[in-house]
UniProtKB/TrEMBL annotation:
Transmembrane regions: 40-63
GO molecular function, one term: methyltransferase activity
Keyword terms: Membrane, Methyltransferase, Transferase, Transmembrane, Transmembrane helix
PANTHER family: PUTATIVE (AFU_ORTHOLOGUE AFUA_6G01830)-RELATED (PTHR43167:SF1)
Protein name listed in UniProt: Class I SAM-dependent methyltransferase
UniProt-listed Gene3D superfamilies: Vaccinia Virus protein VP39 (3.40.50.150)
Coiled coil residues, start to end: none
Upper classification of the organism: Bacteria, Bacillati, Actinomycetota, Actinomycetes, Streptosporangiales
SUPFAM superfamilies: S-adenosyl-L-methionine-dependent methyltransferases
Pfam families attached to this UniProt entry: Methyltransf_24
A GO biological-process term: methylation
Amino acid sequence: MRTLRRRLLPLLLASASVGAVMVLLPPALAAFGLLPWSQALILSGVILLGAAACALAGGLLLVRRSVRQLATEVRTHTRAVTEAVAAERLEIAEANADLEQVRAGLERIEGEVLPKQRRQFKRDLLDQGRKDYEQQVAWSELREHLDTATFMPPLRGWAASPDLVRLIVRHIDRLRPELVVECGSGSSSIWMGYALRRQGRGRVVAIEHDAHYAEQTRALIAEHGLDDVVEVRLAPLVEAEPGTVTDTGLRDKGAVPRWYDTSAFADLDDIGLLLVDGPPESTGRQARYPALPAFWPYLADDAVIILDDTSRKDERALGRRWLEEYPELLRVEEPAEKGAHVFSRKGA
């Protein structure tokens, strides 16, 4: 309506101006005696009516045009509103479809996944409880069997698990070795020291690559009064000899595989039990493989090699490699928490 008024206003002003001139023209002619007053009045009235009719016609044309434009705008707006409503309905429909999928997924999770998860959680909980119980039993048996000090270094975690230490102690009791060598050091070194002290013979030599950890183990040894039984030797990790690693391409790539400095234990001989629990997995692929080639010349005929952490892929692979390269070896897989393989010469 504002557009209509803006368009009509100039037209009305123009029409009014022209109409005023035309209406005043006959009286002006009559005033000058050029036209009788009666005719002048009639002519002014006719002119006034004609001007009004023209103005009305023009206004009607403008109104019609404005109505058409308004109709076009209404149709355009209606179309836009319709499209917006349709798009919104489509979005709502898609949202409902997504909601149905979510609802179906939740129903599936509630009906299938959650029961499975609960059953798996229950199995895992029972399995962990059984493992914890077994480790507690092994711990208690070790304490009672070895008559250790009241406060012993903890097992499990980074340290050996009680079931592995129990396995080691059983072999120490059976073999009564003069020398036990451990790749790595820590809590297990203390427990093996008690086992050797109980039998009244033998010593433990723990090979450690980390100077700080070696000092910690030495402090534990002193605390338990096992200095005469357990020795920790520092053997930094150095470039391993060619052929003692699986991935020979490592050297070409600039990644030199490392193992203990063998000069630290070159004087050892007649090793009755070898525990391979180091170096750490982060050292490289099959990081513990060199243990057997390095110690093989120094092993007693009835020696036992115990490989820890055989639940890991790397340790299982290097164990198979040992069997392939040393066919005289026999392997027994022990049910330990982290996995343990026991190697010995056939017939020993």
